[in-house]
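Q: My labmate handed me this sequence with no annotations at all. I'd like to see what the chain might look like in three dimensions before we decide whether it's worth expressing. Could you predict it?
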Amino acid sequence: MRITGLGHAGMFIETTGGSILCDPVIGPSFFGSWFPFPDNRGLDWERFGKADFLYISHRHRDHFDPALLERYVPKDITVLLPAYPTDDLEVDLRALGYENLVYTQPGVPIAYDNGLRIMVTPLRAPSDGPIGDSSLSVDDGTASILNQNDSHPLDLERLFDFGKPDAYFTQVSGAIWWPMVYDLPQDAKQNFAQLKRDAQNKRAMYYIEKVDAEHVFPMAGPPMFLREELFRYNGYGLDNDAIFTDQRQFLAHMRAQRPEQKGYEFLPGTQVDLVCGEIEVTQTLYTQAEIDRVFDDKWDYLAEQRDSRQAEVDAEVARRAPVLPPDEMLAAIKEWWEPLLRRARTIRLGVGGNVRFRIGDLDMVVDFPKAKVRAYAGEECIYWYTIPADLVSTNIADHEIDWSNSIFLSMQFEVGRSGKFNEFLTTFLKCLSRDRIEYVENWYSEQSDQTEDAEIGGWVVQRRCPHLRADLTKTGRIEDGVLTCALHDWKWDLASGACLTTPGHPIRAGRIVETASASA
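A: Here is what I predict for the chain of 520 residues:
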């Protein structure tokens, strides 16, 4: 088996039973904000586009690049479609002309007569990417790999039933806008950025230890930010207030935590040959000296990329929709969002207040308790956003149903809040369709059935995490009465049951009371 890195989360897998093109992206993505790091334009995209299978793990535009697919990937390619609760990815692929779809079953291997086995394992909780993320397991009899990319699977036993992978490819860098765009004092932003990087490292190490593959390849980030106003947020940031760990930084962290683990830089052009447990890793696009310069002189490299690629940034801006007048924009959002708000009872209660949006000359408020969208009139708000009007006008024109993972991941906005992070608000802004709203409302209602308890560190705690139902006997850690779930670093005060990370999501817990035996 041969695996070639294509940049970011992209890879080209050559097996004895056929080739698989995974998440190919050149970008830029998210309104021209994200570019693969390092530059992957020099790859032989004509060759990689002639794969036997296409696998798009999820709908995020740093994994799904319609322009690249249109240019390089034939329409008759066999597409491995993850089994998601809504058909948004399928609709997007069919709109591009891809009709040869294989509807994979969750965690069920597909076996071909030539010995190739493939398994797609989807995640389908509201917080899993754009309501859906997935991993890909591949085995051809000579080697086995797990391409986990951005996904954070809960049922690892099901993944392990496929077979232990020889090589493991997983996300280690951030893919979120916190805390960079938030209205915070600089020292607070730096502290939160450090905490976020630590949490990302901890989660990546949790999976590395559980999967226990001999060979580990960090991937799926970091991006390059080449827009002038975002350039400072590359890597850890010019002022140490960003979260984007690179491949070499993570490998250094992994060696310190797990010295025996074999890890490798996986970059555009990295070629990994696996045969019956043996591995050979070579670089085909960059020399080792060029790679060393990318990491050792990163800011110089990034500045060269920025200065040479502004035409791509300008071209994206030119493709945006004309800005709507404020009254038309308010009317369009009101007509679109109010019917969804009326259906979203759990979300409305979870948000529990007003949210202000300043969009160019429009100043509006979304009253979640009353399911209303109206002009802002001085109401007290729990969140407030400032967003460029051309981004919102484009999402209205495109009827983009996921603003969290389009506008927000662009980082071309500002936000402030009063109190904790509110997951329900972020969920609403990625569920701007009837199908998505109905799915997440049903999903939230099903989470209330959590009757099984377990003993953890002197406490009896509900076994399933209130966030995404992870098994807390495996992912939970208790220190000073605070339970932390290692998957997403969410925390609960066990004495009160309150979630310390976001409103809602209480946990059931009680101390184990030891009774002394009676004296004879």
